[in-house]
Amino acid sequence: MGATKAMTDTVVDVENLSLHYFTSKGAVRAVDGVSFSLARGETLGVVGESGCGKTTMGLALLNIPSPPGRIVGGRILIAGTDIVPMSEKEIRQTVRWQKISMVFQGAMNCLTPVFTVGQQMRETIQTHKPMPRAQAEAVIARYLGLVGLPAEVARRYPHELSGGMKQRVVIATALFLEPRVVILDEPTTALDVIVQAQIINVIKTLKREMDLSLIFITHDLATEAEVADRILVMYAGKVAEIAANEQVFDRQPCHPYTKRLLAATPRLHEKVSELAFIPGTPPDLLDPPAGCRFHPRCPEAFDRCAREEPPLVEIEPGHLAACWRCINA
Amino acid sequence: MPENTILEVSNLSKHFSVRRSLGQIVSGRKSVVRAVDGVSFAVRRQEILGLVGESGCGKTTTGKLVMKLLEPTAGGIRFDGREATNAAGEELAHYRRQVQMIFQDPYASMNPRFKIRDVLEEPLLIHGLGANRSEREELIRQALAEVKLTPVEDFMGRFPHMLSGGQRQRAATARTLILSPALLVADEPVSMIDLSTRAEILAMMKEVQRKLGLSFLYITHDLSTARYFTDRIAVMYLGRIVEIGTPDDVVDRSVHPYTRALISAVCEPVSGRVKTIKELPIRGEIPSAAAIPPGCRFHPRCLFARPECREQPEPELAETWTGHLAACRRWKEI
């Protein structure tokens, strides 16, 4: 990780982060020793199958693990300050929503039906920054404008808005306290294709105009191709590979899991007779397999993979992989 | 109806009346959602027809009409050379054996208190197939083997919650196959399944379809899987089919402005797109099915619309070239 750390403009630096869920059957190691960094102005895409720990990692970055989850180790440096040892009060007052915020998965369906959009947005602002109503309304109008909505949307109720409009409202709400970093968890998943493309355009425009750094979580590599400068592939709570967009889509990823995920992603403009798939299912994180967690599903596995866990190693500048084949090559 | 057609749907419509406001009741105005508004298509024998569109375009309602779960407001269904629109009694039971459905949600479409054996036995009991328990068990074994849920004995004794999403969709497919149907209606069968196993389930369905010579109506919002999975694609917009043809024609040589907009919006796993803002050749948002625009229903969102698109009657599906139809009067110019 030497090269990335040396960069002066690192806004988020995660080292060896672990978040486990303590269930009656034992600890589910949902995020298990994850390290990465996010540079200023960068979009980092986080991909993986469902249950690989993407959302859990996003919640960990805000230090809001959902019970029975707990951060059990590691550091999260946001603008240089480790937020893991901070008290809840301190995080709420200084970090969460002001330095880093999140658009939760399905948040657009969590708007209250009994209040207008403007009332809900005003509540968010005034909780953190008490201000007169007229001033709050001006702020709301400005942010609605930024996401491409007319100011009159504030007077409407959520049921009067389409899915795309609600998603824009939720994105605008995440930006009120001018965070430098925004985590977006599956922001386009439940939307129609055309609306998806519109939301991606909104996100790109906002990023440019507000100088944001983004962590974009999705299960879909095709979406990452459109938004992410770098792509982090997660598998079973661990980082499998971190590579630049061009590395993944132009040249070739190195980790067998990334390769297979890419092969399983359908392409509209390419005629294929057979789509690839990944046999088997992700492991149970109560009792993950020894060695590399992907080895039971990996067609390229050899004896060492079952014995020893591969570390995440920089195999070429800016390209990291946790795979014995990549490390030995 | 040509010999090689299994299902023919002509001018099918389904209108739902919605609750009216007091003002509407007083003035006598009716509010009607035209979910499906004059849809015609045919599914050929041993063909997979894809029905593609955004949410609210009426594709699921069309599927339900074909399943005869809903009564059409207008139009007709012919199945296997026979009129099926008003089928009742034994005729309807026969139709329901012949036309089976795979649902979107493999978690909700099975009784959680039934073992897989019971899930598969139920249709046999309903339709009175299999003389005794051992005969039915044999049919269940065959169906599970067909969808590769092996070892069969092991899966028969499991409850749905003990299966992964992919395995459940296999079991759901087995449940439809057990009645030896001729046509399967699959409504978003893989949209709730993880990307890594999606292709596996589609490949399994295609294999079963080819092997048993089934016809398939594949309803989806996803053009990418439709291109790979289907023999022909019909694109729906606001209750109507706007374009229909082979997957290659629809994706690479589409003529309808709506299809083109849909295609341009799809994300592709290729590099070089991060810095650009995508140009989308479409305006505004999809109107409500309760207020379908006059003339061509796509005209308010169309970049190529002219006054005649609004003023003149709606364009019908017309042949653009052999085997390809589109509902746009300006397709040659644009």
Give structural notes.
The complex is a heterodimer of chains A (329) and B (334). With 329 residues, chain A is of the alpha/beta class. Chain A has helices at 2-6, 54-61, 88-94, 117-128, 133-146, 163-174, 193-210, 221-227, 245-249, 256-263, 303-307, 324-328; strands at 10-23, 26-39, 43-47, 69-78, 81-82, 100-103, 181-185, 213-217, 230-235, 238-244, 313-316, 319-321. An 8-stranded mixed β-sheet of chain A has the order 6-7-8-3-9-10-12-11, sandwiched between helices. In chain A, a hairpin with a 2-residue loop joins strand 11 and strand 12 (319-321). Chain A is globular and about 65 Å long. The two termini of chain A are 19 Å apart. Helices cover 34% and strands 22% of the residues of chain B. Chain B has an 8-stranded mixed β-sheet, with helices on both faces. In chain B, strands 2-1-4-5 form a 4-stranded antiparallel β-sheet, covered by helices on one side. Chain B has 334 residues and is an alpha/beta fold. In chain B, strand 4 (74-79) and strand 5 (82-83) form a beta hairpin. Chain B is globular. Chain B has helices at 22-27, 59-66, 89-98, 116-126, 133-146, 152-156, 165-177, 195-212, 223-229, 247-252, 257-265, 307-311, and strands at 5-17, 32-44, 48-52, 74-79, 82-83, 99-102, 183-187, 215-220, 232-237, 240-245, 318-321, 324-326. At the A-B interface, helix 7, helix 8, helix 9 and helix 10 of A face helix 8, helix 9, helix 10 and helix 11 of B.
